[in-house]
Specification:
Elements: H1 10-28, H2 33-54, H3 66-92, H4 98-125, H5 130-156, H6 159-178, H7 180-206
Helix pairs in contact: 2-3, 2-7, 3-4, 4-5, 5-6, 6-7
Length: 208
């Protein structure tokens, strides 16, 4: 009897099923590192510019114009959103039906969430001083991010993603209460560094 025709034992069948299941999981699960790394760099650099502009006591550490800091943060967050969209596309492209629709709706949630936050910031921010206006923009955007991270973790049952979103929400609330400089510092170091760390944790779990 040829090897191809040999009847597999129950143990061999189980090992084959596990091997094929692991291969399928690797194929349909996108690498989370680019997503978390993109957001981590965006927050580290973008909010770092805000921190240098505001300073902890209201005195700038470097003469970075607020417009430059805002453009840098929004630009890098836009690039991070594109990386996230590509990651979701990699997840949905080989899969059709409910999983693809879920990923598409989740992607649209990011777009509409940021559009809503921008509308609020534009309407309310015009009545605030410069420092408070920048804090409004930053805290609203991070609120959207934190909520969507927690929602994504709940949808795909990814505990580190949910925990990271909850951590972002806590840091965002503390920073908003403490003031523009502290908020920028917490978002740059805590959110930026935490995002990179979360991506590495997920990568290690995915490759086990």
């Amino acid at each position: 009897m040829d090897d191809d025709e040999r009847v597999l034992s129950p143990e061999e069948t189980l090992r084959l099923i596990e091997k094929q299941g692991s291969a399928a999981a690797d194929r349909f699960t996108p690498d989370p590192v680019p997503h978390y790394l993109a957001w981590g760099v965006a927050w580290l650099v973008g909010f770092g510019a805000f921190f240098l502009h505001h300073g902890l006591s209201g005195t700038p550490y470097l003469p970075i114009p607020i417009g430059v800091a805002m453009a840098l943060l929004l630009g890098m967050m836009t690039l991070a959103m594109l990386v996230s969209a590509l990651t979701m596309w990699q997840l949905g492209s080989p899969v059709h039906g409910m999983s693809q629709a879920r990923g598409m709706m989740y992607g649209f949630a990011w777009t509409f969430g940021f559009l809503s936050a921008a509308a609020i910031a534009i309407r309310v921010g015009a009545q605030l001083p410069e420092a408070e206006r920048s804090l409004l923009w930053a805290s609203l955007s991070m609120t959207v991010v934190a909520v969507l991270y927690m929602a994504g973790g709940a949808i795909w049952h990814v505990r580190p993603m949910f925990v990271f979103g909850a951590g972002l929400a806590v840091l965002n609330a503390i920073g908003t209460t403490a003031g523009p400089g502290w908020h920028a510092l917490l978002m740059s170091v805590g959110a930026g560094g935490g995002s990179i760390a979360a991506g590495l944790v997920l990568r290690r779990r995915t490759h086990r």
